[in-house]
């Protein structure tokens, strides 16, 4: 089977062999390896880079250069591979709620719906620390385990669905999507807001995540967190060199010290100052 070079490189980087027939096991392994291998981060956003959604550019950034990315890039790469392999996939957009169910927000998250053997699944390789490591079935409202976390797909009136994660014994709604038709042009609108609007979350915070079956590492501004099934450990990022070291050691992102100093001043120092004031 012949693919664009960008998709061939994607398969090679994840050490995946394409099966002879369409397989849910392959999709599961693709999602797990993708999320573990490629960090979710908004470094390009906060550094003011131009972020292209062309497939070749996305592959160059994520696969070749290992820089990680955010949802519009991660899920585009996954979608295009599954589509090229012959899977029945649909592009969908979602509203990120983070449990504020009355929150008025635009559709700034991209996901993929897969239909296979008359079953439908949500595929998401680009939601960061709370995102699933495996496909989530829409055919059940029971909890579904993915890694050490549990999720629920909840249908709503009007054809919308909530994607929920179990937190502290209760359901926490991550985002809401519907079955409307969306195109790459719709993604461009959400992408433009997400990386250019002055009020966008990704413009105003430093966010980096890496997720494996038994461990999630995340950096949010001044706090570095490691989460496992047994609990969480937090530490404060005390200096630009510590920030530089965390990015290199835990996320395989190597930055010049001057860049780490810039990010520290913009996103870390103010939080540290605020926490010291409150204490």
Describe the 3D structure.
Belongs to the arylamine N-acetyltransferase family. Its EC number is 2.3.1.118. This is N-hydroxyarylamine O-acetyltransferase. The protein is α+β, with helices and mostly antiparallel strands. It folds into two domains: about 5-195, Arylamine N-acetyltransferase fold (2-Layer Sandwich), CATH 3.30.2140; about 215-279, no CATH class. It contains nine helices and 13 strands. The chain has an eight-stranded antiparallel beta sheet with strand order 5-4-3-2-9-8-7-6. α8 packs across α9. The longest helix has 22 residues, at about 255-279. The chain is globular, with a radius of gyration of 18 Å. The relative contact order is 0.13. The mean pLDDT is about 95.
Shape: globular
Main pleated-sheet profile? 8 strands, antiparallel
Continuous helix count: 9
Mean pLDDT: 95
CATH architecture descriptor of the largest domain: 2-Layer Sandwich
CATH class of the largest domain: Alpha Beta
Number of strands: 13
**How many separate domains make up the residues?**
2
Q: Low-confidence stretches at least 5 residues in length (pLDDT < 50)?
A: none
Question: How are the strands of the largest sheet arranged?
Answer: 5-4-3-2-9-8-7-6
Strand content: 25-35%
CATH T-level fold name of the largest domain = Arylamine N-acetyltransferase fold
Termini separation? 61 Å
Q: What is the chain-wise order of helices and strands?
A: HHEHHHEEEEEEEEHHEEEEHH
- Oligomeric organization of the protein chains: single chain
Rg of Cα set: 18 Å
Helix content: 25-40%
Structural class, please? alpha+beta
